[in-house]
Amino acid sequence: MAEKKTRAAARKIKDKWKSKVWYNLLAPEMFNKQLIGETLADEPSKLVGRIAEVTVQDLTGDFSKMHIKLSFRVNHVQGQDALTEFIGHDMTSDYIRRLTRRKRTRTDLTVDIVTKDNWKVRVKPMAITDRRIQASKQRAIRALMGKVVRDAAASTSIGEFVRAVIAGDLAKAVAGAAKTIQPVSRVEIRKSEVFAFGEIPTPAPAEAAPAAEAEVPAEAPAASEAGPEAPEEPKPEEPAPEELTPEDIKDLKDLEDL
């Protein structure tokens, strides 16, 4: 009897995997809503808050950016699509270790920045010199890195700032400014964390093309009921009067006397 009960109870247990559905994870608008993966869930509400990591190589196909990892968090679900928001980036530990060598100085900094659209991000840049430097130069490089990063963030939106970090434009700006203190061999923005969200970037609506004005054809002159006017026929020329001879004048006078 006990075996029959356990078998009946096992049949009643529902398979949870059968009730789950695959959802598409889409990147934020700053990455053109690219598909970054798929995830399972039995209810859409359970997707909110999930974090997905993807490398820049997976998004852009650039093999040289495979060491940069982007983090996205699901914040909304539309049908079968799970929309995400950017929450930060990081670099792989093996890449950071390769940059740090003997007889070099690594200068780290943590700075909080505010973008033009009021996103608050904690950024962690680092600079590596090709030789050992004094602590006073390290302090000067830290101050310079903080100023360059804050100024760059204040004049750009979150999407432009993230693209500058990924492409290396921000690191080049920091390296160029640090040359006045000490030439640096490498600058990297090794990590960023979003701790306060600002305006969510939305795609600009497509401008509607002005409707082409229909060309109104010029009114044709009304045709007469009889149809188009026929061209006038040329009138026959009247014969010129013949000149009277003296004999004809004499005959005319004889007729008048009668």
Sheet/helix structural class: alpha+beta
What is the helix tally? Answer: 7
Radius of gyration: 45 Å
CATH architecture of the largest domain: 2-Layer Sandwich
Number of domains: 2
CATH homolog superfamily of the largest domain: Band 7 domain
The helix/strand order is HEEEHEEHEEEHHHEH
Q: Outline the biggest β-sheet.
A: 9 strands, mixed
Strands, total number: 9
CATH class of the largest domain: Alpha Beta
Q: Could you name the ranges where pLDDT drops below 50 across 5 or more consecutive residues?
A: 204-228
Question: Globular, elongated, flat, extended or rod-shaped: what is the shape?
Answer: flat
First and last CA, distance: 167 Å
Q: What do the pLDDT scores average to?
A: 81
Q: Please estimate the helix content.
A: 25-40%
CATH topology label of the largest domain: Tetrahydropterin Synthase, Chain A
Topology:
Layout: H1 2-12, E1 21-26, E2 35-41, E3 51-55, H2 56-60, E4 68-78, E5 81-91, H3 93-99, E6 105-108, E7 111-114, E8 120-129, H4 135-154, H5 158-167, H6 169-178, E9 184-196, H7 246-257
Parallel strand pairs: 1-5
Antiparallel strand pairs: 1-2, 3-4, 4-5, 5-9, 6-8, 7-8, 8-9
Helix pairs in contact: 4-6
What does this structure look like?
With 258 residues, the protein is of the alpha+beta class. The protein is built from seven helices and nine strands. It has helices at 2-12, 56-60, 93-99, 135-154, 158-167, 169-178, 246-257, and strands at residues 21-26, 35-41, 51-55, 68-78, 81-91, 105-108, 111-114, 120-129, 184-196. Strands 1, 2, 3, 4, 5, 6, 7, 8 and 9 form a nine-stranded mixed sheet that branches. Helix 4 (135-154) crosses helix 6. It is flat, with a radius of gyration of 45 Å.
